[in-house]
């Protein structure tokens, strides 16, 4: 059995090496490295894949979030509601914009933002909701859309971990995550389900005016060269990264299906094991793309299991060990700890197992066996 990796980008590259090398060489031959044909081609193909009117490529997922907020004509002290259980970029852009961060608790089954907590947090100053499709599973978008309509709020979906996932509405209709709210964002960090070989990001919207504004904002505030109508950013997806992403986009559904199959095997192996809660799997098979396969380990055994996995050369991740409201950068003495009972519990229980497209059955079974041995 090969050594186990948390992410195996080399194995994935080997499977599509010829196509990737040819795509990269085409950029080298054109020497069009910024906003070249490769970027335009990838943008068009991603628009078609998502069935969305506009994709605005940018430098990274954090910029995608910031550009989205910049496009909404917000004022200082306007409130943005998001989850307390996410990577810091979701929250940092809110504060960088001089806006007020309102954190809320999560759903115990999905780790996603709890829709009932959102509505309780809305005030007259609230202007937008940022749901995060955490670990690859869609948030409760139908409920979130209803809340947004009720209070006239904007929705920015942080889709960095769930590109390719679908959300099924109660009437059976389906939409890709990131295309349900007013704006969707993603990251192409190398370990993502659709990952570049460097940094990259994108924004999605069906709103023509927002799309135009975000394109201008991402290009130093220029619509016409050297005429700056807005204060913007320098945030571009370079052509080399677009060349990689365009090849890998063709395989995204297949990659996501491999992740689902690996998740199913993990869950079947660990079914009924004491002190283990396996990830929630939505009724719609495509509603989770398993960017991470995250267990809950009960009875204060998570850290002991982590030590045991390390001794057995099994990598793991703990996403996230400290909730945002307890981070030094985001601490607010006015925010009460007891507002987040589920989040406070989750940070002590979660552990993510190796999950990638090259994971073998033997590796999954070995990891599962070691977990069972430890907990039994």
Could you walk me through the main structural features you see in this protein, from its secondary elements to its overall organization?
With 376 residues, this protein is α/β, with parallel strands linked by helices. The protein folds into 2 domains: 12-249, 3-Layer(aba) Sandwich (Aspartate Aminotransferase, domain 2), CATH 3.40.640.10; 252-375, Alpha-Beta Complex (Aspartate Aminotransferase, domain 1), CATH 3.90.1150. The chain has 13 helices and 14 strands. A hairpin with a 5-residue loop joins strand 6 (166-168) and strand 7. Helix 2 packs antiparallel against helix 9 (239-249).
Distance between the termini: 24 Å
Rg, nearest Å: 21 Å
The number of helices is 13
The mean pLDDT is: 97
CATH H-tier superfamily of the largest domain: Type I PLP-dependent aspartate aminotransferase-like (Major domain)
The portion of residues assigned to helices is: 25-40%
Beta-strand percentage range: 15-25%
Architecture per CATH nomenclature, i.e. the level-2 architecture of the largest domain: 3-Layer(aba) Sandwich
Order of helices and strands: HHHEHEHEHEHEEEEEHEEHHEEHHEH
Give unreliable regions as ranges.
none
Please, how many domains? 2
